[in-house]
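Recap from last week: sequence in, structure out.
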Amino acid sequence: MRRPTPQSSNTRPFLITRGRTRGASEAIAIETQVVSTEQGVATCRHMTFERRDVVELCREPMSVAEISARLGLHLNVALVLVSDLYSEGHVFAHLAEFDASRDVDTLRRVIRGLRAIS
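Predicted structure tokens:
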């Protein structure tokens, strides 16, 4: 198994997302916990580098924000990739029941988590 590594700073975000700023599912947020599905793991070797890295990294649950930080991807790029992978059944997303992006405590926890991994 190839270990996911941070993406090159030379890769333009619009190339990874094919110019899109939104993914297939609008329900994905930065705090959403993501985990690979069996289908995703089984087919990841046929995916583009970034998509494969997300699936391999998410064999253990982690947030979109953490995926972004660990792979060195812009947060919006990670959101688009995860959203697409979710809609295709390659990852499972534990969707929040409320809008956590407006909850101050959740935002503080996300910030603390990002600081802890950097």
